[in-house]
Design brief:
The chain is of the alpha/beta class. Helix content is 43%, strand content 8%. The strands form three sheets. It has a six-stranded mixed β-sheet with strand order 5-4-6-3-7-8, sandwiched between helices.
Length: 510
């Protein structure tokens, strides 16, 4: 008779190896969670968005710093566990003569019991780690809000196409300077910040001499709501009057050919008025969907890391931090402004700095070392570069007919220089130079405002007339109209913006 082939026994992963893997997974989740909560003071929505987008174009230095921060504690804790697992799982010991011999029966039994406990801990860790992260990140509250419905858009959204907007006959140029992580806590306590010295004296002076909307009677700024508190969300909110409240599956919209095509943004309105528009940043503009957004809403020309290499503004292999630093960006900005002004058509140049990005910021060769804190030196350097750029612009022929808006994108995502103030209590810097308007009679610059209010306020600063003083969810801060933050209160508005909206999906995400 023909012999039946022997069945091969399936190889099983040893129990102690499986336990070690489970323990490692649990430790990684706990360490990452505690590291994030210790260093960052930001929403779960911002974290999930960052994790959901392709990391191509992200700063290599940031990734390296994350690894350098979390790897040592993970390896240390896991190393202790691995040693215990190895020692107590071994039934042999080495004699003084160097030979391996079996342990006594009683000792073997005790060590097996300890080994079983260590293995059990490994399997418990793989459950405890995710559970710990789940509750420490306040995920139940996030889920509750996402499963709740808001009707704020049906009630409060003002479609720019349904408003009889009136552009000024003499169209001013526009320079929008978004400053990475620029918040007002960097100022001294005397000026309205929280620092022992003022790290932003130049911008403090600019705010004092021009128009700056503040939540206090000192240097303050605009609130950052959830879903507007990372760079792409802030750019979107400041130019559309809406939060970045797209469902998770739509966070990959930069893969497609359009970005929320039904929304009428600042770029769309200025394109209709014949503006030449450009977006300039020192990184890969594709990151986070920025390039797609600006290309499809205003036909902006994109000047980023790749364009700078192509034009010879930087060497072909140049790469620091996220691409090229702010000192290079401001040099390119001067060249681009000169070129745009010579074309003879109204222009909108939107710029985004990068050096102040977490973690801790980037020290360029122009940064000093007058302060013991790295981030303080980065912020002081940004302040000097911004004020020098403003001074240069004021000397140019185009300045007389140019409105400049300087605005932080969001508060710092890490807690460098800001560890004593909760994220939601910090405000972003803003300053309006050469504005065509003053606050209306009875109105004041001391307003409780949000990033969404920047949209109609920008147009108003350029001389546009906005019947009703509102666009999107934003309010013209030059008017006496109440902002949603003032009418509803920050916490209530924030909660509504975190809730799910079928209206938002149907009208804005498609």
């Amino acid at each position: 008779m023909e012999e039946k082939p022997e069945k091969r026994k399936k190889k099983r992963i040893p129990l102690r190896i499986a336990a070690a893997v489970c323990f490692l997974i649990g430790v990684i989740l706990v360490v990452l969670t505690e590291w994030y909560l210790d260093l960052y003071d930001n929403s779960l929505a911002a974290l999930l968005y960052t994790l959901s987008i392709p990391q191509q174009g992200a700063g290599a230095g940031t990734v390296n710093e994350v690894i350098a921060s979390v790897a040592p504690p993970i390896l240390f804790i896991f190393g202790i566990y691995a040693v215990l697992l190895t020692v107590f799982s071994s039934e042999k010991l080495r004699t003084a003569a160097g030979k391996l011999t079996r342990r006594p029966a009683g000792t073997r039994k005790a060590m097996r019991a300890v080994a079983a406990t260590v293995i059990t801990i490994g399997f418990i860790a793989v459950v405890a780690g995710p559970t710990w992260a789940f509750f420490r990140l306040e995920t139940p509250e996030y889920i509750r809000l996402m499963r709740s419905q808001t009707h704020i858009y049906e009630k409060e959204y003002v479609d720019p196409d349904n408003v009889a907007l009136e552009a000024p006959a003499d169209k001013p140029n526009l320079i929008c300077l978004y400053l990475e992580s620029m918040e007002t806590t960097y100022a001294s306590e005397e000026e309205g910040g929280i620092q022992p010295v003022n790290y932003i004296p130049g911008m403090t002076q600019l705010a004092r001499e021009n128009i700056s909307f503040s939540n206090t009677d000192k240097l303050g700024g605009m609130r950052s709501n959830d879903n507007t508190n990372w760079t792409m969300a802030a750019l979107f909110a400041g130019t559309s009057g809406l939060p970045f409240a797209f469902p998770v599956e739509n966070n990959s919209m930069w893969k497609y050919s359009t970005f929320a095509p039904s929304i009428v943004t600042l770029g769309d309105l200025l394109e209709r008025e014949g503006y030449t528009q450009e977006f300039l940043c020192g990184s890969d503009a594709a990151y986070g969907g920025r390039e797609l957004y600006f290309r499809t809403h205003g036909n902006y020309a994109i000047y980023d890391l790749w364009k700078a290499r192509e034009t010879g503004a930087i060497p072909k292999d140049y790469y620091v931090f996220w691409g090229f630093e702010d000192r290079v960006m401001f040099r390119i900005a001067r060249e681009e402004l000169t070129r745009l002004a010579e074309e003879g058509t109204p222009f909108n140049l939107t710029l985004l700095t990068v050096d102040a990005h977490h973690l801790g910021g980037y020290l360029c060769e122009e940064c000093g070392d007058e302060y013991p804190d790295k981030t303080a030196n980065v912020i002081a350097c940004t302040d000097r570069q911004v004020t020098a750029f403003v001074a240069w612009c004021r000397e140019q022929p185009f300045w007389e007919n140019t409105v400049m808006i300087i605005c932080g994108d969001h508060p710092r995502m890490d807690t460098c220089l800001t560890e004593d103030v909760p994220f939601r209590e910090r405000t972003v810097y803003n300053c309006f130079l050469n504005a065509r308007k003053e606050p209306a009679e009875g109105a004041t610059v001391f307003r409780d405002a949000a990033m969404m209010d920047l949209y109609p306020t920008t147009l108003s600063a350029m001389g546009w007339e906005i019947p009703g003083n509102r666009l999107g969810l934003g309010t013209d801060l030059f008017s006496g109209e109440e902002t949603l933050t003032e009418r509803m209160g920050y916490e209530e508005l924030n909660e509504e913006m975190m809730k799910y909206s079928q209206y938002f999906v149907d009208h804005f995400a498609k």
